[in-house]
Automatic annotation (TrEMBL):
Transmembrane segments: none annotated. It comes from Nocardioides aromaticivorans. It comes from the Bacteria. This is NADPH-dependent oxidoreductase. The lineage of its organism: Bacteria, Bacillati, Actinomycetota, Actinomycetes, Propionibacteriales. Residues 12-165 form the NADPH-dependent FMN reductase-like domain.
Length: 209
């Protein structure tokens, strides 16, 4: 049987880490995001991580809010990537405020089109990584999935990896050594599915709008 899946070695990924902690503070969201990147590299996908809170991203719903807004540079990296990963902690059962700000900025893509009427994000794959010490990983991924789909991204099967500790306890994902086997296996599945889907969509783009 011939495997006609397109090669993934020309694909790029970008992780937007939505921790509330500025560098160089340690962050479980950052750690899980980097592990997703490592898993993607196993499929020939290169990539980078941007910790959003390290940059002066303005609130708003346009592609450029002016006055030193860092979003236009981050947006260029988003548009240059084939795979976007949103890595966020859970706070009060919700995606972080930084994550919600990122989704608000991506809202501008609804009005950005290519020459054939497709959103500029059309054909790009998106996935989610979630960490927290309370319940809510499914709720958080559902919120982020919907927003990313609305602005043109395609979500692969098993497009989320997460770790959630016992509620109201102090253990954090970055405190776990070794990493839980189930989270590692889920990260590997996410990476494989995301790379596979991104390669397919790059080889066979969606039809004109």
């Amino acid at each position: 049987m011939v495997d006609d899946t397109p090669p993934t070695d020309s694909l790029r990924a970008l992780v937007l880490c939505c921790t509330l902690r500025q560098s160089p503070s340690e962050s479980s969201s950052d750690l899980l995001g980097r592990r997703v990147l490592e898993a993607l590299r196993g499929h020939g996908v290169d990539g980078d991580l941007v910790r959003v809170v390290d940059h002066p991203v303005a609130f708003g719903v346009s592609t450029d809010e002016g006055d030193g807004d860092a979003w236009p540079d981050i947006r260029r990296q988003v548009l240059a990537a084939d795979i976007l990963v949103i890595a966020t902690p859970i706070w009060m059962g919700q995606p972080s405020s930084v994550c919600k700000m990122v989704l608000e900025r991506l809202d501008a893509e609804l009005s950005e089109e290519d020459d054939e009427g497709r959103m500029l994000t059309s054909g790009k794959v998106a996935a989610v990584a979630v960490v927290g010490n309370e319940d809510g990983a499914h709720h958080v991924s559902a919120e982020v999935y919907q927003a990313l789909s609305d602005v043109g991204f395609t979500i692969p099967a098993n497009g989320v990896t997460y770790w959630v500790g016992e509620a109201m306890q102090s253990t954090d994902y970055q405190d776990l050594d070794p990493e839980p086997e189930k989270t590692a296996a889920t990260t590997a599945t996410l990476a494989g599915n995301a790379a596979h889907l991104a390669a397919l969509l790059k080889a066979a783009p969606y039809p004109p709008a």
